[in-house]
Amino acid sequence: MLAPRTIFTARRLGLAAAAVAALIQFLLLARLIGPGLVSSYPGIEYDGFDWVLEGLYLRALVQGVAGPPLLCLRSPVFVLVTALDACLGSSGLVVVGVLCLAQGVSLAMLVSIWRRLGLSGAGQAALFVLAAVSPYVFFQSIILADPVAIAAMLVSTRLLLEWFLTDDERWFRAGAAAGLLAGLTQLYGILPFLTGACLSWVHDRLAGRSGWSRVFCTTVVIGLGGLLLALWHGAIPHEHVPVQFPLLRLSLDMAGFYANVWAWYFGSLGPVFLVLATAALRWRCRVFSPASRFLAAATGLLVGLLFFYQCEEARFSWYYFPLVLCLVACGLVWLKRVGWGWAGRAALAVSLVLVVAQALVLTPGDFWQPQVRELQWDPQESWAAQLVSARPVDRLDLAGQCGAAGVYCEKARLPADIEPDEQRLLRDSIRLRLLPGNQ
Fold first, then answer.
1. Mean pLDDT of the region 182-207
2. With contact defined as beta carbons under 8 Å apart, do 314 and 367 qualify?
């Protein structure tokens, strides 16, 4: 067993590494903001326009000058972030800073989970590199609420994991609070908590004890989440809200798409999966700990729901990628226990080489809808090269129409190649930026 001083040092190293990764990301993204996110930031599309617009709208609503209802009202947490940015001058630094902070929190939670599962320091370091330079970093430069939702989801997962390991009720309640925050950012964020809550009931039955306190806590979280969303929807004028359930369908139509997505985004983990599968055939593990069952169930729920979600966007698999890394950690610990630790280490080393290649020299062409047949050796189009070479843009031609890239005017020109809904978002953003105090 590691000495307390060693554990404390490892914890500090993990936090320091997560902080450094978040700081590097912030420095890379902050230089791309230019005069503002909507007008100048290259990594922003429809969803990003909407998040920023809703922050501007919330600020204007408080001032009593919001105007017509929003086209679509999103979940509150990230809207509050963009609203804070709007209140502080719409520089974009608040939004980018929160996204980078969320990435740092996610990495810190992952390291904490791996350490709690008993993974060696070298194994933690290797998985940290995999998490920090995975091709999913491409999406971390896009203005989305997902990094915040994933961070809160991982905090909830870490706290629930501690409950499964210690049965201390305080961890469950804290995990419930973090799960609620995740769900109020993006709905999928609460799913690991709900999974853990269901398994806690089974855990209690097997232990021969009452679990009504956890049932009550889960009911309160669900009820409070529904109430807060109802109040949010009632307070903000809007035409509709995002509805995901109609896109869920029991069908194999997405199999071809995900074959390409998983090959690209999870391909670097292939050597580890191969070793784990080979070892499992030789040593059949029939007894799983409550912690590993929780991680597997939460991952399986997200994988299943998103596989049947009829929308071809690779970023959806990003939601459960951190949980997959936690399962990999469980597998590596098991390999060491059965005497195959050497094979796990060798496979992890190969995985590191592959993920670095994905970061520096390989590209699938389209990171949103990758195709294995389009995989190329092209260092100039890798996600790392794209991030480093990106520069601010003048999306609305403010310099030409309004005199300077950071000055809004009624002559601001919308891009010609965007959809009608996107045009409305940009027009509303321009209208709100022209209000007194928003320039």
1. 92
2. yes
